[in-house]
Amino acid sequence: MKLKFNHVDFFYGTKAPYLFQALNDIDCDIKEKSFTCIVGHTGCGKSTLIQQLNGLLIPSKGSVFAGDFIVSSNKKERTKKLKPLRQKVGIVFQFSEYQLFENTVEEDVAFGPMNFGVKKEEALKIAHESLLKVGIGESFFKKSPFDLSGGERRRVAIAGIMAMQPEVIVLDEPTVGLDPRGVKEMMLLFKQLHEQGTTVVLVTHDMNLVYGYASDVIVMDHGKVVYQGGPHELFNRSVDEYSLETPLVTKLIQGLENKGYKFDLEKIASIDDLVDEIVKQRRTSK
Ligand SMILES: Nc1ncnc2c1ncn2[C@@H]1O[C@H](COP(=O)(O)OP(=O)(O)OP(=O)(O)O)[C@@H](O)[C@H]1O
Ligand SMILES: [Mg+2]
After folding, report:
1. Could you tell me which of 63, 92, 181, 277 has the fewest CB atoms within 10 Å of its CB?
2. Residues in the 5 Å CB sphere of ion ligand 2
3. What is the pLDDT of residue 68?
């Protein structure tokens, strides 16, 4: 599903002096089947932006096109029933671990499919499959979500969105606070979903993740999109311009290039890839 923002403004509050403009003339798109990362400093509008993608927030001006759905400030243009869009574009919120509410883990995950008309038995089956995919084993299925750790609860929340089999999965800072192994496992899960054809939209502050996984990057600043393009172009030329951290791999590559190495950036997604490439180049230069 293609997603397009068409000159979107968004204001929190309804009346001056309480109005706050969180989005300012957003005009960009998210490519179908891309792995798009959205980055930018705290308060720049990332969470506000993603909530327009499935109509949880409605633009104050302009429109969002999500496949055949139109989420517009203009009531006449807006798609009447937005509920089906929420199945197609699933959002895992920031701090999603606090949003579980059912008595058991399996019921929490089955809630989404049941809400969209799937019978309980089938919904539980889907829930179990989703839970196993996020690394939550059978022994957890009948536990209360409140007896789980924060990281486990977040996995359950992700399973809840995956169980709806959305075309687009939007994840707002899902790796915050996880240990390095947890981060890696979670990123591999998103990579797998992407490879299976899901469009992945990931909000993150971690430029190493952007370097390793993104096909496309959107940089926001004070409610505006200031960059849209590929990760390599961003990290090689413009990080300073947007005051972003340089990913570790980019720093290493730049240092090595100063010493005469040359790299095909498309082939290097991680430190491991870089090490392999160095070994290969040293072998062939002998
Ligand atoms: N419910 C609200 N009412 C009024 N202002 C809000 C509300 N939610 C967010 N804002 C303001 O809108 C701006 C954008 O907030 P948003 O949560 O989208 O930022 P963000 O980029 O996701 O930040 P972070 O990286 O901290 O999650 C901020 O200045 C914030 O204070
Ligand atoms: Mg946010």
Report:
1. 181
2. 46-47, 94
3. 96
Mutate to test the pocket of ligand 1, among 10, 12, 39, 92 (most ligand atoms within 8 A of CB): 12
232 is a domain residue? no
254: domain range? 247-286
User: Is residue 50 in some structural domain?
Assistant: no
State what percent of residues in the chain have pLDDT above 90.
Answer: 82
| Number of domains comprising the chain | 1
Question: In angstroms, rounded to a whole number, what is the distance separating the alpha carbons of residues 154 and 92?
Answer: 9
Residue 8, in any domain of the structure: no
Task: Give the pocket of ligand 1 (CB within 6 Å).
Answer: 12, 20, 22, 40, 42-48, 94
CA atoms 232, 270, 28, 196: torsion sign? positive
- Residue closest by Cα to atom 3 of ligand 1: 12
The pLDDT tens digits for 15-50 are: 888 899 999 999 999 999 999 999 999 999 999 999
- Kindly report the pTM of this predicted structure: 0.95
Q: Is 163 part of a structural domain of the chain?
A: no
More confident position, 242 or 76: 76
CA distance 192 to 251: 27
Tell me the angle at which helices 105-115 and 120-133 cross, rounded to the nearest 10 degrees. Answer: 120
Average pLDDT, the chain: 94
Tracing tokens 């799937």 back to the chain, one arrives at 118
Q: Is 15 helix (H, G, I), strand (E, B) or coil?
A: coil
Greater confidence, 14 or 119? 119
